[in-house]
Specification:
TIM Barrel; Immunoglobulin-like; 3 domains; seven-stranded mixed β-sheet; 6 helices; 16% helix
Length: 485
């Protein structure tokens, strides 16, 4: 982002950077400073809240790159309304400009549900005057159960990050900042057990997903990516926050460490040319140029697919998830046949690969029921009753039974609804909720659920989730926010 020349300080073995922001409302801003000396690849990190602080141990006569991450906290942005966040951000922008015009301010660090409440919140930030305050939009695009699942993938699979990036860029474009860079200061997959916002994964699945997440982000144009975390923060397998590491609590590398190391070694100093457009979900491919040759990462998001590649300019070498060479397939009718799995396969070639065809081998890509909330951020006055639409669309060839519900942040449930969708049909139900008469001004998150089952299917109900935010006690002018499609 920016470069800060700290200059020489005679008689001292280090220089220091003082971080001091104008005072803001309690809990509105969480500030993190990351920096590195020009030419270094590793970032140093120091975290602050509202307090001034010093980043020490810096060398004199050195130029440092400084990244300031200002965010509202928590899955519901710490209960901080966009107007309050931007008011604090404006003070931080003034403080950063006063310290050095080369300090880059990034934020608001949205996490997860950019398809819905996150894009609502980003729109609200722009209505509150955020345009021009940031040098980059910062995201925490953890893929959760509430993130839409692309065809053939697993709920919470990495491929959902593409939805988040697409929605974020749509909001940026609508607000005149289409060229604002996007950074990802956190993402990852916990090797935990039990239910949470994100699906728990095994060690083997984490290795697959951490690599795919990186490839998808860089393929979609993100150039600054930090993973959470390098090392586990504890040993409780039922605590997700203890299990995000690429190495465990004792420092032993997980398979994800070795897979990530192999990816970095293979990519080296290649230049990413983006997602390969001739790969269609559930198959994904990201292409990199390495001088006069190319490296293409290929995988399936939720099973195995046959992929036929033109032998003209085809693969000359292949490597598995851990960088080990794999035998090249033979050529048949001018094509090479590869089986794409959930583990990335790296294909080296002298020319850009051309995917001729693809087909899912197993399991078959099953139809889904799609759910949208309109709006996905619902505003209440205390004691008021509000309704919002839940739109459902079936991809099945048979009628589908649907049950809709939504958790209420103050206990209980919203009024539920039941529908039967005709084959390839759609319908709309209203969910109704009343805020307590004594509810204080607050921004909190809820969980809308769509349970569905094809008629005649005796199996378990499948559950689809979407996040919904509730604004309580907001002024009438703020309640009239437009829907974000």
């Amino acid at each position: 982002m920016g470069l800060l020349d700290l200059g020489n300080q005679p008689g001292r073995s280090y220089s220091s950077l003082r971080v001091e922001w104008a005072k803001t409302a309690p809990d509105v801003i969480y500030t993190r400073v990351q920096l590195r000396k020009q030419g270094e690849t590793a970032w140093r990190s120091a975290c602050f809240t509202q307090s001034p602080g010093l980043v020490l141990g810096l060398e004199p006569d050195a130029t440092y790159e400084v990244l300031v991450d200002a965010r509202a906290t928590g899955p519901d942005y710490g209960g901080v309304f966009a107007e309050d966040y931007v008011a604090g951000l404006r003070k931080m922008r003034a403080a950063a400009d006063a310290a050095s015009p080369k300090i880059a301010l990034v934020g608001p660090t949205f996490g997860g549900e950019l398809e819905g409440p996150g894009s609502d919140y980003l729109e609200a930030c722009y209505r509150a005057g955020m345009r021009g305050l940031l040098q980059a939009l910062d995201l925490h695009p953890y893929v959760k159960y509430a993130t839409p699942t692309p065809p053939g993938g697993h709920p919470g699979g990495p491929e959902g990050v593409l939805h988040s990036l697409e929605r974020a860029r749509e909001v940026l474009a609508r607000n005149g900042e289409a060229e604002l860079p996007i950074t990802v200061s956190e993402c990852g997959h916990p090797t935990s057990e039990g239910e949470w916002f994100m699906p728990p994964v095994t060690y083997a699945q984490q290795a697959q997903r951490i690599v795919r997440t990186h490839l998808l982000l860089i393929g979609a144009g993100v150039r600054r990516i930090w993973f959470y975390a390098f090392q586990d923060e504890g040993t409780d397998r039922r605590n997700p926050e203890h299990n995000f590491g690429l190495v465990d609590w004792h420092g032993k590398p997980k398979p994800a460490y070795h897979a990530y190391k192999a990816m970095v070694a293979l990519l080296g100093r290649t230049k990413c040319e983006g997602l390969q457009p001739d790969a269609k979900p559930p198959v994904y491919a990201v292409r990199f140029r390495d001088g006069n040759s190319f490296l293409t990462a290929l995988w399936d998001s939720g099973g195995e697919s046959e992929v036929l590649v033109s032998a003209k300019g085809g693969a000359t070498a292949t490597f598995d998830l851990f960088g080990k060479p794999v035998s090249l397939p033979g050529t048949n009718a001018g094509r090479q046949r590869f089986v794409a799995t959930e583990s990335a396969l790296y294909l080296r070639s002298a020319a850009p690969l051309r995917l001729v065809s693809q087909r899912r081998l197993s399991p078959p890509v099953e139809p889904q029921v799609q759910m949208e909330l309109h709006p996905s951020t619902v505003s209440f006055a205390p004691g008021a009753t509000r309704s919002w639409e839940c739109r459902v669309q079936s991809e099945f060839d048979v009628p589908v039974e649907v049950r809709l519900s939504c958790s209420a942040p103050w206990g209980g449930q919203a009024q539920c609804a039941a529908l039967t969708l005709p084959p390839h049909g759609s319908d709309i139900a209203n969910l109704i909720l009343t805020a307590p008469a004594d509810a204080k001004r607050q921004l909190v998150s809820g969980d809308a659920k769509c349970a569905y089952r094809p008629r005649g299917d005796a199996g378990e109900w499948r559950v689809l989730r979407r996040a919904v935010f509730f604004e309580v006690g907001v002024p009438q002018t703020m309640m009239a926010r437009p829907n974000v499609e």
